[in-house]
């Protein structure tokens, strides 16, 4: 193999590595953002997040499932296109901060933004 061919192959490998490590992760971030669903919800004062989820599901606006644990409350395992598994669980955030209580304990407040993440 000539020196010019070695330089060409080396250059191609560097370009491929650049695409693999720099550009590909940025495409994933964009697709995650496009998977978000924003759905304003009307609720009565002191409505629990769990009750709001049940109401939204009854009205056909979301799909979710999970499991009720005695003394702990309801744990959401699936919501929309997000599904727990492979060592990841659904965690919800309230106004950008990880929730400190479960969905069956959190009382919604006017203006709350609830975000679900697989972690």
UniProtKB/TrEMBL annotation:
Name the domain of life: Bacteria
Question: Which stretches make up the Transcobalamin-like C-terminal domain?
Answer: 64-119
> What is an example of a Pfam family matching this protein?
DUF4430
Name under which the protein is recorded: Transcobalamin-like C-terminal domain-containing protein
């Amino acid at each position: 193999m000539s020196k010019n061919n070695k330089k060409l192959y080396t250059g191609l490998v560097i370009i491929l590595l650049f695409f693999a490590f720099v550009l590909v992760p940025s495409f994933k971030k964009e697709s995650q953002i496009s998977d978000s669903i924003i759905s304003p919800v009307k609720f009565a004062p002191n409505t629990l997040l769990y009750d709001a989820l049940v109401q939204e599901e009854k009205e056909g606006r979301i799909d979710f499932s999970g499991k009720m644990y005695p003394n702990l409350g309801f744990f959401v395992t699936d919501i929309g296109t997000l599904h727990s598994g492979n060592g990841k669980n659904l965690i919800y955030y309230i106004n950008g901060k990880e929730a400190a209580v479960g969905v069956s304990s959190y009382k919604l407040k006017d203006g709350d933004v609830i975000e679900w993440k697989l972690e």
